[in-house]
Request: fold
Amino acid sequence: MNDFFLASQFWVSSPTGIYKRRPNLIGFVNGLPLVFIELKKSHGKIQHAYQHNLKDYKNTIPQVFWYNALVILSNGWQAKIGTVTAGWEHFADGKRINSEGERGVISLETLIRGTCSKPALIDLIENFTLYDESKGGVAKITAKNH
Reply:
């Protein structure tokens, strides 16, 4: 049985102790930080969360991403999902909640309900994530909802 925990505004110090950052939400499964969620204001651009916040966190507190499975970026109305190694162009919308195509009221709700329910999250990590070394570095790839 897995233990799930979502931490809000969780302070993380850099390995050197120089930096201290507070990501919006970190989802833990059995104590491992597997889901990273960065939220912007409702009128903010979520690409800013990728270009500035996520890149800063990856540089200053990289240990948060050692076990990371999913990165979710949202302003509440729009939401994108990707991996820690994905470029912005590979972040995708959450299109449906289940195989019947059920949609949520807003994009973030659809994405969270479709990927972060306990069974869906474990299934996505176990069966729909792979690592690609074909371009010289290791890239983590997670299946997109078509």
User: Anything to note?
Assistant: The chain has a mean pLDDT of 90.
